[in-house]
Amino acid sequence: MDTTSVWRTAAPATGFGMLQGDTQCDVLVIGGGITGVTLALLLAQQGRRTVLLEAGEIGSGTTGHSTGNLYVTLSQGLSTVLSRWGEQVAREVVAERRAAMEFVEAQAQGMPEAAFRRCPLVLYARSVRDQAHVDGEIQALTRIGCPVRREDRAPAGLPPARGAVLVLPDQAQFQPQAYLAQLARRAAQAGAAVHEHSRVLEIDTGARVAVTATGTVKAGEIVMATHSPKGVHLVHAEMPVHREYGVAFEAPPGNTDIGPGIFWWHGDEGLSMRTLEQQGRRYLICVGQEHKPGAHNAKAALMALEAAAASYLSPGPARFRWSAQNYRPHDGLPYIGRDHTGCFIATGFSTDGLTWGTAAARLIAAQLAGQRPAFGERCAPGRFTPIKGARNLLEENLTTAKALFKDYLTRGQKEHLSSLAPGDSALVEFEGESFAAYRSPQGELFAVSPVCTHMGCKVHWNSVETSWDCPCHGSRFRPDGSVIEGPALKPLRRKPIALG
Ligand SMILES: Cc1cc2nc3c(=O)[nH]c(=O)nc-3n(C[C@H](O)[C@H](O)[C@H](O)COP(=O)(O)OP(=O)(O)OC[C@H]3O[C@@H](n4cnc5c(N)ncnc54)[C@H](O)[C@@H]3O)c2cc1C
Ligand code: FES
C-alpha cells in the first residue's frame, strides 16, 4: 500500500546532498524533523558550525506524517500535568508552547506553501463517561487563565456532542512538510551543512563521532533529534510507544465542510479531524486511535478508522493513508536536554511534538549558548519522579517484558518458507533457528533474524507498511532488515536460506 502522507505528496523534494567524507563541527544534529531542522537554523544563526544528518529526506520521519496542528494545550489533557505537577508547571507548559507556536508563525511569514492559519481547537465527547474528560479540561484551562469557551453543541458537520463543548480560540494549523522544507533551506542559507540520505550508523558518544556509510562527523556536541534517541537510553524504559493511522479523504460533497479548526472527538471511537485545501482540492483528514506497534493488526486498524469516518462524517473517497508513532512521557513532560550519554536528546513528545519539537530546539539552542532556561530544568531527561509516573512505568515495563518472552512463531517448517506467496510473511523456527521471512510481490525472499537489535525483543509483521516492527521501544525494520525508525542503530541480521 502507498503510505505517502497528504503533506509529503505535495511538497517538492528538498534535494540536499549526502555527507561525503570526514568533517568537523561545533554541533552535530542528527535528524531532520521539526526538532532537528529548527535547531540547525537557530545554531547557524548563532554562528555555530552546524552539521545536520538526516537518514532519509527532510520531514520523512514523524513530522511529515503528523496532522499539522499547533496548540498550547496537550492531547492527553492539560489536567494530567496540572494534577501531577501543579498549577505553576501547567502555566509554564502553556507559556512555552505558546512561544513555540508564535515562533512557527513568525517563520511561516513569507512561506505561503506552509499554509499557516489561526483557528480554534474544539474538544468534545459523545458519551457520559468521556464527557468527564472534556469538563476536566475546561476546568483545568480556566484555572490557569486560558480563555476557553464552553459551548453547547459541536460544530456543524460533526457528530453531535453529549455535553459541553470546549472551544480554545487562537490555536493554529499548517502544512508541516512544506514548512519544514523551507526551514531547512533557511538553515542551509544561514550556514548549516544539511545532508539527506546520510543515516548515522554508529555513534561514539565519548569521542563525539558519528559514522555514516559515506563519511564521519566529529563534533563538539551531539544532539539526537531522532524522535526517539538512538542506542540505549534510560528514557526508553519510561516511554510507551504507540502507532496511529491517518487518512485524507476528499472533503464531503455539499456544504458540510467543517472549516478551519482542530477538532478532537474524545472517546473510544475518538477521532482528530481537520480540513486542508491543497493544490485545488479539499480534504478531510482523520487520525484515529493509538495502537502498540507490533502488537496489532495494521490493516484492521486502518479499516476501523475508515469505517468510523465513513459512518460519522460521510466523506468522499480516501486519497492518502499513512501512519506514524508517538512516544509518551511517563509524567506528562517531554525529555529535553543532556542525558547520561553526554549527548542532548529531545523526545517524549506524545502527539504534541510539532510544538514540543520547536520548543525543544529553542531550549537546546539556549542551553548550548550557556543559558539555563527554567523550563529546560523541568524537562531534564534525568529527572526522577517515582510517584508521579510509577504506575504508568510499571504497566509499560510489563508489556515490554511480555513481548520479550511471548512466542510469536507462526509456522514451524522450512517448507513454508519455499511456499511463501508473494506479499506473504512468516515467523518461522527451523532446526533451532528463527527466521522473519517475507516474499516481495516480485518474488524475492528475504529472511532476517526476528530479534530486534536494540534490546532483543521479537519483531512482528506490519502488513500495511511491509515492515518488521518491535513492540518494545518502537524500532522498525524493512524486509531486508535495514532500520526505518526507532532507537535501533543496527539492521536485523540477514539470514542465508537454503531451500533445497
Ligand atoms: C499520527 C500522528 C499525528 C500527529 N499530529 C500532530 C499534530 O497535529 N500536532 C503536533 O504537535 N504533533 C503531532 N504529532 C507528533 C509530532 O508529529 C512529532 O512529535 C514530531 O513531528 C516529532 O518531530 P521530531 O523532529 O522530533 O521527529 P521526526 O519528525 O520523526 O524526525 C526525526 C528524524 O530523524 C531521522 N533519523 C532517525 N534516525 C536517524 C539516524 N540514525 N541518522 C540520521 N537521521 C535519523 C528520521 O529519519 C527523522 O526524519 C503527531 C504524531 C502522530 C504519530
Ligand atoms: S526497540 Fe527496543 S528492543 Fe526493539
Automatic annotation (TrEMBL):
Residues 412-500 form the Rieske domain. It holds the Pfam family Rieske. One of its GO terms (molecular function) is oxidoreductase activity. PANTHER family: RIESKE 2FE-2S IRON-SULFUR PROTEIN YHFW-RELATED, SARCOSINE DEHYDROGENASE-RELATED. The keyword Transcription does not apply. GO terms for cellular component: cytoplasm; membrane. The keyword Oxidoreductase applies. This is Rieske domain-containing protein.
